[in-house]
Amino acid sequence: MADQGDVLTDLDLDPAATGNGADNQPSVGFLTQYIKDFSVENPNAPTSFQWNEQPQIDLQLNIGANEAGDGVHEVELKLNASARSNSGVLYAIELVYAGLVAIRNVPDEQAHAFLYAEAPRILFPFARAIISDASRDAGFQPLMLDPIDFNALYMQRLDEKAREEAAAGGETAPPAGQA
């Protein structure tokens, strides 16, 4: 027999405590992850395998988020990685790795931070593995990307945007002391 007041067996919840049965608790979760776009180019093979120069690696990163439905957002992590030497391009990899995120009962400011900082942090290890495998499968050493602090990038971008808005506001605002 169940103990009186046992959380696991006492399912007679107080309706007043749950908001009359309304689902009003904050909730965020990934519904799925997928490769949205993927391209690997090895334009100078097979001669590029004989080049002995140290390649220069270039990595470009971009984050995007779009509303995909009621409470569902698509977060895209766009990575472009290329290796070049004086002799030419060894490889170029373009990847758009995305995830569908369900967000419910979360304030807009916190949802924005999740979509542009936390969601990319969660997606990145999967995209990193795809880039590594692609460079290896193209015939080169696996490209091992360092971890990225997406929260710091997010905060940096917010600071840049605030400075841009302040500079734009400062040019059009009337001088101090005038109405």
Summed up, what is this model?
It is built from two helices and four strands.
Indicate the low-confidence ranges by residue numbers: 172-179
Largest beta-sheet details: 4 strands, antiparallel
- Terminal Cα span: 76 Å
How many β strands by DSSP?
4
Radius of gyration: 24 Å
SS strand fraction: 25-35%
- Give the helix level as a range of percent: 25-40%
Structural class: alpha+beta
What form results from the Cα inertia axes?
A: elongated
Strand order of the largest sheet: 1-4-3-2
Give helix and strand order, one letter per element, not per position: EEEEHH
Report the average pLDDT across residues. 87
Give a written overview of the molecule:
- It is a single chain.
- The chain has 179 residues and is α+β, with helices and mostly antiparallel strands.
- Helix content is 30%, strand content 34%.
- The chain has helices at 108-137, 150-172; strands at 27-41, 56-69, 72-85, 88-104.
- Helix 1 crosses helix 2 (150-172).
- The longest helix is centred in the C-terminal third of the chain and has 30 residues, at 108-137.
- The chain is elongated, with a radius of gyration of 24 Å.
- The chain starts with 26 loop residues before the first strand and ends in a 7-residue tail after the last helix.
- Mean pLDDT is 87; it is low at 172-179.
